[in-house]
Structure formats: C-alpha cells, structure tokens
Fold this sequence. Notes:
mainly alpha; elongated
Amino acid sequence: MNTFKLTHVTTLLIVACTMFCGCASQPVEMAPQATEALTSLRTQLFTAKTQVQEAANAAADLLKQPRADLTAQIQRLNSSVTTLNGTREQARATAQQYEKQSEQYFAKWDETLKGMSEDTAERGQKRIALAKESIARLRGDAVDVREDLNPFMAEINEANAYLKTDTTKSGLDVVRAKLQSAVKREKDISKSIDKMIADIDSIRAGK
Length: 207
C-alpha cells in the first residue's frame, strides 16, 4: 500500500462536496495511511458541532433572556457565528483537495495490483471496492450534515447581520422567527454530525 494520505473529508466536507451515490451497509476497515486524516476530520466535526451548539445557545439566550442592553448578547452571537463561518469556509477548501487526492489514492492502490498475481489482484480489487463504498458512506453522511446545516446557517447569518445594525429589542423582534427556527435545527445538526463521527470510528476501528 502506498503512503498517500487522504485529506480531511469536512464537515463540514461536510458542507461542500458533490457526493457519490450508494453506500456500504457497514463501513469497512481501511489502512492507517488512508485513515490518518480521518482523525483530524473527526476532531473538526466535533468542533463544528460545538460551534453550532454555541451559536444556537447564544440565539436562545437573546430570545429567552433579553437584557435591557443587548450589546453583550449580540456580541456573543456575532462571535459564535463568525467562528462557525470560518470553519465552514475551511471545509469548502478541504473538500476540493479531498476530491482530487482521494481519486489519486485509489488510482495508486489499483496500480499496485497490476503486477500482482491474479488471485491477489482479485482480492485487492474487492478491498478497493469496499473501501470506496465506505468513503461513499461518509459522503452520504456529509450530505445529511449539509442539508441540516445550510438552512441553519442561512437563518442565523441573516439574523446576525441584521442585529449588527439594529441592536434594540424591537430589532430583535424583526429577526425573532429566524432565530427561533435556527435554534430548533441544532438537534438535527448534532445528530447528523454524530452519525458521521460514528462511521469514521467504524472505518478506523475496522468494525
């Protein structure tokens, strides 16, 4: 096996990739050099989940316990949303790299089998197919994360942008429905991220 490393699959991958169709019923074990980047991805997913929760909590605090002066609460919301947007942009860049490098990884794996015996080549091709299905499963997970995350981001970004200008309680009322909807979406986002993390763990552990 070559030592080419798969790059981070985001998250937010997550929020950006064009996904394959079809998934393996269970993720299969892959070589450490192919899954090392998944450790970083797992960390990024957990970080993204925490950031979503913080943004939702900041929005909920504004809705449920608005203070006489909303400045500090709005600053908290703005800070959490800005951080989350940064993670999202990083994920888009990572996704582009991943698509190219994952294709190269499997192409090199396939190339190593050409000089092998028929028996080894046949078994190796089956392993490649299973490994691709496992990656496709992660891509399917990423679709779910993106579908849950995108409307959340649209709503909370719009509310955050408005509150930068109109920092009054009347201003809060203008975007109240957006914030309420975003807060409700947090649980589904966390659930879809947890599913992707579980599949990464299965691939890394060979379960």
